[in-house]
# Entry
Amino acid sequence: NIIVGSHVWAEEPDVAWVDGEVVKINGDEAEIQAANGKKIVSKLSKLYPKDMEAAAGGVDDMTKLSYLHEPGVLQNLATRYELNEIYTYTGNILIAVNPFQRLQHLYDSHMMQQYKGAPFGELSPHVFAVADVAYRAMIHEGRSNSILVSGESGAGKTETTKMLMQYLAYLGGRAATEGRTVEQQVLESIW
# Structure
C-alpha cells in the first residue's frame, strides 16, 4: 500500500525508472520527489515499492529480493554490473550482463577448478556453475542434457557458449589426441 512518505520506483522516460519519495497523493495519482531532483506525477497503479533495506552491492540471487518487479530487478543487475559482477541467479536461471570487455580472471583454470563439483549456489553465480550442474546430472542420470543460452544480438551468447564448451571439455578430461587436449579440440570446433 503506497502512502505519503513511501519510497517508490516511478517510470521516467529518459532512464526507465527513478527512485523517489511520495510527497502527495491526490485520488489515483501521486506526486513523487525523485532522487535526481525532479518532481514526477504518476498513477498509483504505476508505482512500485522500493526496498530501502536492499544490500548495497545487490543480491546474487534475485529470488532474495523483497520486491521482484522490473525496477527492482534492473536496479539489482545495474548495481552488480557496476561491481563487475556480471552473473546473477534467479533461482536456477543464470542471467549474464555483457561486460563488453574481457574478464579473463573469470574463466581461467583456477576458476574452473573452484566450480568443479561445487554445489549449485555455494559459490558466486557463474556460467561454470550452470555447466557443472548439467554435466553432473548427465553423468549421474546417464541421459543427454542441454543448456539454453538466449539473448538479444550482442548480448554475448557466442562468448557464453564458448565458456560453457571450454568448461565442459575441462570436465570431460584431458586425454590427448595428436598432441591436443579434448578441451582444445572442442574449442577449435566452435571457433
Helices lie at 70-82, 109-115, 127-141, 157-171, 182-190. The longest helix spans residues 127-141.
